[in-house]
Design brief:
mainly alpha; 0% strand
């Protein structure tokens, strides 16, 4: 079930929906902000007492013990992080971001060796080495790598698209040098997007 405060309050206590735009609270009416916070507080408390009672009455003592001794202490460690933020070495971040981008560009360049000059004639508007129709065409049609898994079947009953999931690509290792490059690309792309650029945007 959902873990959010509002859906749980509605589901368990039948509370009517309450919300304001929290994108920029400084632009909201102060009275509405105070009312919003005033509703958040008792509903959160009511859920706390509800779930505490459930845990205390639970026959699964191991689950309750894990929650009390592991889950909550671990979650509480984030309080100081949320209050003060995380120290970041900006110079190291910028340096490593450049390294990651350089590695990603190098891999993209090497992957281009496997892209035929007439790629556009196959109905593709751009080259995209991320999960895409272009990459499915390149891997399974152009490079003739076997399809070992498919996604969800289509509404008309046709089989799903060949899967490019990481677990599938790991299983295809050794079938073609491009697979190793694509796996390496996934790692460096994740570094660039999930860590370096995302962290840089959050630096205050």
């Amino acid at each position: 079930r959902p873990k959010g405060l509002k859906p749980l309050a509605r589901q368990i206590h039948g509370v009517p929906p309450w919300a304001i735009s929290t994108k920029d609270l400084l632009d909201e009416d102060l009275g509405e902000v105070l009312e919003y916070c005033g509703l958040d507080t008792p509903h959160a408390a009511n859920l706390y007492f509800h779930f505490r009672e459930q845990l205390q009455e639970s026959e699964n003592r191991r689950k309750a013990l894990l929650f009390a001794k592991l889950t909550m202490p671990a979650a509480n460690r984030f309080i100081s992080v949320e209050q003060a933020g995380v120290w970041t070495d900006r110079e190291a971040l910028a340096t490593n971001w450049k390294i990651a981008e350089s590695e990603l560009a190098s891999i993209n360049e090497r992957l281009m060796d496997y892209v035929p000059e007439d790629w556009q004639s196959h109905g593709h508007k751009e080259i995209n080495f991320g999960p895409s129709n272009f990459l499915r065409w390149l891997v399974f049609e152009q490079l003739e790598i076997p399809v070992i898994a498919r996604g969800k079947a289509k509404d008309n009953g046709d089989p799903g698209n060949p899967s490019l999931a990481e677990a599938v690509m790991l299983e295809l290792r050794g079938q073609h040098p491009a697979i190793e490059l694509l796996l390496e690309r996934t790692k460096w792309y994740k570094y660039c997007t999930a860590f370096f650029s995302a962290y840089s945007e959050q630096i205050d």
